[in-house]
Write the structure tokens for this entry.
Amino acid sequence: MYRDPVESLESLHSRPALNRTLRVGMIGIGTVGSGTFRVLVRNQADIAARAGRAIELVIVAARNLARAAGIVGEGVALTADPMQVAAHPDVDVVVEVAGGTGPARDWVLAAIAHGKHVVTANKALLAVHGAEIFAAARKQGVAVAYEGAVAVSIPIVKALREGLAANRIEWVAGIINGTSNFILSKMRDEGLDFAAALAQAQALGYAEADPSFDIEGIDAAHKLSLLAANAFGMPLRFADVQVEGITALQELDVACAEQLGYRIKLLGVARRQASGVELRVQPALVPATHLMAQVNGSMNAVMVKSDAAGLTMYYGAGAGSEQTASAVIADLVDVARLDGVNAAQHVPHLGVHEHATNALAVLPRAAVHTSHYLRVPVRAVSQIQAVTACLAEQKVPVRQVALAAERPGIGPQVLVLTGPVAQGTLDLSVHALQARSEVAGVVATLCVELLEG
């Protein structure tokens, strides 16, 4: 007899729970932790139906116990000692949302040692200590899930591990830091310089008082290392990511990119090449008509190129309490469904790859081939030919040359878009340009990413 393969949520609710309640201990009850508790309580029936059993928070570790009590109310035990959560006999899974890389490592390893599954939204922890944590989890036969650590509300880890499981991934590229994307959007839309756009981001709560991790590209590099590990089955290689932030980006280059038909985005790019993998975070020009160029404000997006599915794109909020909670609870639902099967196959864990020794090499910066944008200040408009002649001498392919629109107080600027060229060759050509008498200032360079199929 035919049966509709799509069951309604109501029919799921009518099923009896498959197992006892999944008991959760949480370390940290700040922005993400409080959002996780709210969503767990508000949507508990739907979550239980999808998980096959109830999910209940039983204990929370917090620095401010009075504040924590005001959030979780009665019925949830409180402690100031995270190790009590990690070792608690009535906890099945530990949710670590306190942040940091030092104490958090110890708490997570302790939880694993006590046979607990772990869910975390802490990308810095995994980028720095992930190899050790995943190896410990594999030895203990528990899962480490981290969807909320990569792209907040976007289920990109699940997409790579499950939705695209049949595919060979060729590249992954993403806008994976909401703070930097907000700043770049303001620089383009309102003509602000970097400092003014950053100040606005801080005033609105999009940037921390110390925004270094965001604007220097470090946060995006943490996330990119996790994306690459899942895309290519390679160990975490955060230390090998080439990282350039947006602090040196000038409003002039944002305007010139717009003139040429491009927008500047801070991109994380992981691309498989014959000789290795590119891992880089840097501001780059993207065609203004491309979907990635339409990702504005604090939103995130990740694009994946794979052999069978082709181009796929995933879009969603890049920050937020309940947005991150959505990913954390999705991981809890995955853990709830384990029921004795191999954890590494059913939870966003790196599985067999975390201890790989035959991993793809990470390409050095000089060997990466991309197209480039150059802005060359010259002493006179007539000197545009001197710029193109110098690039030709350096064997740099030139696709387009233009003069920047005139701006008060700024001399003539030659704008160049190159074809694909090794970064090492491009660096030498910029050095040669800088030595020319016709060049009146510092040559600005940015990568160009077409993100084509």
Remarks:
- Confidence is low (pLDDT under 50) at residues 1-17, 351-357.
- The longest helix spans residues 123-140.
- The first strand starts at residue 22 and ends at 27.
- The domain at 156-318 is CATH 3.30.360.10 (Dihydrodipicolinate Reductase; domain 2).
